[in-house]
Automatic annotation (TrEMBL):
The keyword Membrane applies. The chain crosses the membrane at residues 30-49, 56-79, 85-103, 115-136, 148-171. This is DUF2878 domain-containing protein. InterPro entries: DUF2878.
Amino acid sequence: MRALILWIAYQAFWFACVMGAEHGWLWSSPLALACFIPLRFIIGTRTRWREDLLHMLTVGALGFLVDSGFAATGLMSYAAPWPSAALAPLWIVMIWLAFALTLRDGLGFLHERPLLAGILGAVGAPLSYLGAARGFGVVKFPLGEGAALAALAVAWFIALPAAFMLMRLSLLPARLHARHLPGAR
């Protein structure tokens, strides 16, 4: 039940970011993220905030690189392109940061299933971008919708399993530290 509630909260966050981008409100996605983070800790499992922060930053960097690549190649253009039209906009990076917080509790069943994660990423992400494009006009596909959606499918086939790998790596320092505590086995 927690996973469903978290996923609904994430969808509300996504809508806030996309609608803010539609209106050119740069402040809306950071504000939505500031509301989503504590809500995630209320709904989700209790985790160490340092691990979650590290995971957010690594997955956020992954997302920044993926979406900046799409912007730089001209496969996609984004509304509210701040700080630059050649980079992933702030609002989409905020979506990646929040998405990182859904992986453990909302999509945890994919944690040890990289092929399934890749397939779901390859299907779900293009649909999300298509919804942002058709429903809100905040994503455009200058080189054609088919090419952009195919590139998104390939990117997310790789990116979602990579995000789970980054999550495991972000947990590693805490596990290593715990082994060196007095009384730890």
